[in-house]
Specification:
heterodimer, A: 191 residues, 2 domains, B: 175 residues, Rna Polymerase Sigma Factor, Chain: A, Arc Repressor Mutant, subunit A, 9 helices
């Protein structure tokens, strides 16, 4: 009975035996072991090499990063230096090429040599200008609407008379200086 | 343990493991049905073992441990192969096998039917079948490797054999 039950599985055993035998002919155990040992030796060597190569890569990567950073730093420095040079040179070029600037510089130098600091009596003039502006404002009042108040949280810039006065004052001073200079020049030329 | 002795011990353990390379090869052959692929997979198994050697806790279970790695590696390969076939829409790659005169002998109709029958077995039955029929491991060894009872191994093996036989008969009747 037992043999009868096992009999059908004999076919399986026969097939498997045949397969195994053929496989062992193609790939004998000796060859399998030899190749396996070679591969394991190679791989175990590789594992130590792996860490060494990693270390090399890390070192070289750090080197590359260092060189890149150094390059960027040098580039920034170079650009800064160049920028300064360029600014100076462009300014110099501007002064050289712009007509009249040289004269102006010369004039200014000469003026400062010829006329040491003199307090200008511009206060009265300034007051008169300020009064003129106030009169003008009184004569031409700006329309004051609620809307404009809402729009402008603070007074618009044309209400800043003090700034206007300051500008006018500066203009006046320059005018005064130039006038004096030209007057002197004229006198010098005439004799 | 003296750390200097560790590499020596490791190589000694590897030597012990290599003694079972024939069994590992046969198990791989049972799963892949191709001696060249089986050899390649055997090398993969041993590489895995070499890498995981430090995690081996019980040296008395070295053999079981090796066959556990074999089982996992084989199943991974089969799963990968199935996925590859699924996505590449490829049938069994008969053409890629090396057709040496010896191996051509095995490409008989009966063998091909048997090959199909084994590959159609569910994983649980297939593992037991391959371990027993190809690896020629004892029931107890298989039970230890798979963490099963000996009786379970026996019943699974019997069912696997029956399934293979049924498949063979079915294919023979069809022809």
């Amino acid at each position: 009975m037992k043999n009868k039950k096992k009999e059908p599985f004999n076919q399986i055993n026969i097939l498997i035996d045949e397969e195994r035998q053929l496989a062992s002919q193609i790939m004998p155990e000796r060859i399998i072991q030899e190749r396996l040992k070679k591969r394991l030796e190679k791989e175990s060597g590789k594992s130590s090499y792996f860490f060494r190569s990693k270390a090399k890569v890390i070192t070289s990567a750090a080197g590359i990063v260092f060189f890149i950073l150094a390059g960027v730093f040098i580039l920034i420095l170079f650009q800064k230096t160049n920028y300064g040079k360029a600014t100076v040179s462009s300014m110099a070029q501007f002064f050289e090429e712009t007509p009249g600037v040289k004269n102006l510089i010369q004039m200014s130098t000469e003026r400062s040599n010829a006329f040491p600091y003199e307090p200008l009596e511009a206060e009265t003039e300034l007051k008169s200008i300020a009064k003129a502006i106030q009169d003008f404002q009184a004569a031409h009042p700006l329309p004051s609407s609620k809307k404009s108040d809402q729009v402008f949280l603070r007074n618009p810039p044309h209400y800043d008379y003090s700034q206007m006065i300051e500008l006018l004052f500066r203009e006046k001073v320059i005018h005064h200086v130039m006038h004096k200079y030209w007057h002197k020049e004229k006198e010098g030329k005439n004799g | 343990m003296n750390p200097q002795k560790q590499p020596e011990k490791k190589s000694h353990t590897l030597e012990q493991l290599i003694e079972h390379s024939g069994t590992v090869f046969n198990i791989c052959l049972g799963f892949l049905k191709n001696p060249w692929e089986a050899e390649e997979l055997t090398q993969d198994v041993y590489l895995q073992a070499m890498r995981k050697l430090n995690s081996l806790k019980r040296e008395d279970r070295l053999k079981q441990w090796l066959f556990q790695i074999t089982r996992n590696t084989c199943l991974n390969r089969i799963r990968k192969e199935r996925l590859r076939r699924l996505f590449l829409f490829k049938e069994n790659q008969e053409g890629s096998e090396k057709n040496t005169p010896e191996w051509q002998l095995i490409h008989k109709e009966q063998y091909l039917s048997f090959k199909n029958a084994v590959s159609r077995l569910p994983y649980k039955k297939r593992i037991v079948f391959v371990f027993r029929e190809y690896g020629q491991l004892s029931y107890q060894e298989i039970a230890d490797i798979l963490g099963l009872k000996k009786g379970t191994v026996m019943s699974r093996l019997n069912r696997a054999r029956e399934a293979v036989m049924a498949q063979l008969k079915e294919e023979n009747n069809e022809k």
